[in-house]
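To the structural biology subgroup,

Please find below the input and predicted structure for Helix-turn-helix domain-containing protein, which we are adding to the shared reference set this quarter. The sequence is reproduced verbatim from the submission form. If anyone notices a discrepancy with their own records, reply to this email rather than editing the shared folder directly, so we keep one authoritative version.
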Amino acid sequence: MKTLKNQIPAHSLSPEHSKLHREPAVKNIFGSHQLSQHLHIPGFEIYSSDGMLPSYSPSKSSFYRFGLLINGSLHIQIGLEHFNVTAGTVIFTAPGQVHAKSDVSDDLFGYYVLFEDTFLENLLPSTTLQQEFPFFDYSGIQVFQCVSEEINEMTELLNRINIEIREENTGRTKAIKMYLYLLLLVAKRSYEKQELSINRELSPVHHLVTRFHKLVAQHFLELRHVADYAKLLHVTPNYLNRTVKAVTNQTASDAINEMLVQEAKVLLRYTELSSAEIAYKLNFSEPSAFNHFFRKQTGNTPGDYRNTRPAERFPA
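Predicted structure (tokenized):
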């Protein structure tokens, strides 16, 4: 039987990983790009946007991601949430989240850091990354603006990490972990200072829809019915449907189906699983039910989608 590449698939960090989200021929002396293999630090990579592939369709990663946009703009999708990102914005994703990127401006410049969940574990002896940093939690705000002083402080820390990763100084791995923790701490302080939460500046109905979208992005593989989410949100299914429809012009069921389609596209694009194997993996009763669902949602059969669009390299 054919198997998933990295199971789900969620791409993991490795010395060869940068070829999957960057243009290898682009010369850049920042961070992990074109870094000698003996200097690579397991579970950690850092890059500037120079040489970054400009877009990708729905994908997953097995690591945490922090991005800082210094200049330009782009569109980011995380689960069911869409963000038009501009300069001075930080972006966070957690392992397993479905995300996509598009509409990158020609003048874009920024940095991004990728690290595995165990990389900072010695600095978080009694808590998890999601507990320590709310922007890594599905229920938190994962894209937000920072003031210039915070951007400058984070940029300085990123440059310090760059020095450490490209030189063979004593204690470089420990120094990088400490700088990364300080980087996330600056973002956390900004998050707290701004009192960021999905409650802020949202009407009750928009607050409900945002909470619903975050829950769907987290639980869509096991919870498929509107009633499941209505129960979690302490409202009736009819009320949830009406509210989501009024705010988004999309029913609650449509939102659940959208996440399921994104997952199916990830599996079709980045694995060698057959349509039948994907159908059973996504808990459809039989392959024909999955084929009908996918065609109804996208206008293509799973086979057409896989065959008519060339496979893309897996992004960061």
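Summary notes: The chain has ten helices and nine strands. The beta strands are 44-48, 56-59, 64-71, 73-78, 81-86, 89-93, 99-102, 109-115, 143-145.

Regards,
Lab coordination
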